[in-house]
Amino acid sequence: MYWLHxxxxxxxxxxxxxxxxxxxxxxxKVLNNLPPNSHKSIMRDYCxxxxxxxxxxxxxxxxxxxxxxxxxxxxxxxxx
Length: 80
Fold this sequence. Notes:
With about 80 residues, this protein is an all-alpha fold.
């Protein structure tokens, strides 16, 4: 999943989504349980969830962590 570390990571950086290495590891682990042809659309929705949470949260010190938690929970629920 080379595109996650390059194209996707660059996209996230430009949008203000601060992915950590652990985020990428987690995403890869979850995506391995889903059909490959769905990966990019799922990640697009993942980013939308993250950005929506960033917009809602007023506390700047908590924004990234709350967005990370919301997006990762959403992603886990996609697998269940």
